[in-house]
Model the fold of this input.
Amino acid sequence: MSAESKFDDDDYPAYTMGRAAEMLGATPAFLRALGEAKLITPQRSDGGHRRYSRYQLRLAARAREIVDQGTPLEAACRIIILEDQLEEALRINEQLRRDHPR
Done:
């Protein structure tokens, strides 16, 4: 993967745990809890350190928003997973409509 394409790749694990936590205004423990709740699974560097993608940080930011409103972390993660599944289903449905008009 070229350096330029890494900048455009939402799934490239570009952010360390410390940087990700700083960007979110959260703690590393919050990010670990999101991993334990199976919302995000960071990749690991060669040294075993967690690395997060922009896509994962968007999910984490949404989780932080919902948790800050008083929702328990596990419930917030489930909400986000369902939102993500719905968005994907709608995207697929729209693609099918374009590919097979009536």
